Amino acid sequence: MVDWPKISIVTPCFNHDAFIAETIESVLSQGYPNLEFIVVNDGSTDNSAAVIERYQKDLTKLVTLNGHRDSPVFAINRGFAETSGELMGWISSDDVLLPKSLFSVARVFMDVPEASWITGLASTINGRSELINSRPRPNNLRLFDRLPPCDSAGIYLFSQVTLE
Q1: Range of the domain at 147
Q2: Mean pLDDT for each consecutive 10-residue tract of the chain (164 residues)?
Q3: Residue 63 burial class via C-beta count within 10 angstroms: exposed 0-12, middle 13-18, buried 19 and up
Q4: Domain CATH code at residue 80
């Protein structure tokens, strides 16, 4: 039996009622056995709160903030303040995790303990949730030394900063 590390995922949401359900479902449907999932409603004025509340029983925690900030950074940090996982990450409220992503992330950190952090491919889906493009994020690859992809999900390992 595998002792999967606890993964904490934070999702900040501001006025993404059209997308947040699919984001939440993409995290919950991972089937990852040691998941801590916090959603932060960052003062949404659309129907986001009602959509998120439909999933409240499946979330580790729902944090509701009043007012709005110009950046999701406060909401992400507020969510991380609620976490206790060995591995932490966030997913924006208009993004989705591809199936088994959390298992891939956990496996990387279990197999390569010297990895400091990892990033995946930036994938684009259309309005029908069909994958139409996947590519590495150039800014991430420019800032860190890239090791070969460790699995078919296109996850890249990063172990040291390269300053240019």
Answers
A1: 112-164
A2: 95 95 95 98 97 98 93 95 95 89 92 79 70 62 45 45 35
A3: middle
A4: 3.90.550.10
